[in-house]
Design goal:
The protein is mostly helical. Helices cover 56% and strands 0% of the residues.
């Protein structure tokens, strides 16, 4: 996995400038799941697996397309991936 900075997005974080390896990758994944749990799962208390799957689908769409990320210079992941982000 080779990460390159995207025009318009903040490049001051090591996340956007270098390859993510080992414990760094684990830390990013752990942070993602913490966000999922506290921003969605614990608040909605899904009662069925079907409801959970649908809720997670909706949350990840929000997470990638609408929720600004501080590490990305307040861009959404979709904006940075598509080169549409605005530098912070």
């Amino acid at each position: 996995m080779n990460l390159q900075p995207v025009a318009g997005c903040s490049t001051d974080s090591s996340f956007s400038r270098q390859r993510i390896v080992g414990s760094e990758r684990s830390a990013l994944i752990e942070r993602l799941w913490r966000s999922v749990k506290y921003e969605d799962v614990y608040l909605k208390e899904y009662l069925t697996v079907k409801a959970l799957r649908q809720g997670l689908h909706e949350y990840f769409r929000f997470y990638n397309d609408a929720r600004p990320h501080e590490a990305l210079g307040k861009c959404t992941p979709s904006e940075c991936y598509n080169g549409l982000g605005v530098a912070a």
